[in-house]
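hey can u check if this looks right to u? its 96 residues, i copy pasted from the old doc so theres a chance i mangled smth
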Amino acid sequence: MVMHIVMFTFQEEVAEALKQEVKLQIEQLLDLVPGLLNMKVGLNFSQEERAMDMVLISHFADREDLDFYASHPEHLKVIDLIKTVAEYTKVVDFEA
């Protein structure tokens, strides 16, 4: 199993409603991209200085499915949205 984790920090001026919309758009990928087995998306409530704003945790059977997801047109649409609102992102991919 491959786990794909992405953490996001939104630009400071991004409204809460837009954060919720980004979360929804990511969650909808579960029904749109074959090979995406499971996904959790959460908006952060921690007030720690080191905290990030949102996290995506997704599962794939293998690296090939993750590669397919990465280049899938529906995923690329969501990435385009994220690029307009994210200050930066961090990613970790690993086999479990």
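The first strand starts at residue 2 and ends at 10.
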